[in-house]
Amino acid sequence: MKEQLEKLSDIMLTYHNTTPPGHVLVDMLKNVTTILFFLEKERAGIHDQWQSKVHALTKEGSSVSRAENEAHVEYPEMYMLRHIMTAGYRVADAMRSNISYLKSEMNHA
Fold first, then answer.
1. Considering the domain boundaries, does residue 44 fall inside one?
2. Do 36 and 88 form a contact (C-beta atoms < 8 A)?
3. Considering the domain boundaries, does residue 19 fall inside one?
4. In degrees rounded to 5, what are phi and psi of residue 19?
5. Do the beta carbons of residue 46 and residue 75 sit within 8 Å?
6. Domain containing 65: what range?
7. Tens digit of pLDDT for each residue in 54-90?
8. DSSP string, 21-84
9. Residue 97 lies in a domain
10. Is the pLDDT of residue 109 over 80?
11. How does pLDDT run across 22-54, given as a tens digit for each residue?
12. Residue 5 region, left (φ>0) first, then alpha (ψ -120 to 50), else beta?
């Protein structure tokens, strides 16, 4: 997971700091979407562990709210992945828009 997050971060920095040509942007988008695919698998696994922790704590008598708080402390990756991946999907959407714009410019030039 850490390696995938570093790759995603590198692509985001490149996208932020440059104006890549269309073919590079297409490649970056391909990489972002495949990394997000692999991170979804990681997030699903962590979510299962988080849910199991919440279930066990509520079965022991904790309130759902308290159990969720404790599970968040034990599995901080849940919060991190949720927000990083949401941002990653938004950047992927922006890349698609940039590619669409470049395609439109090529057809009207």
1. yes
2. yes
3. no
4. -115, 90
5. yes
6. 2-9+26-108
7. 999 999 999 999 999 999 999 999 999 999 999 999 9
8. -HHHHHHHHHHHHHHHHHHHHHHHHHHHHHHHHHHHHHHTT--HHHHHHHHHHH-THHHHHHHH
9. yes
10. no
11. 899 999 999 999 999 999 999 999 999 999 999
12. alpha
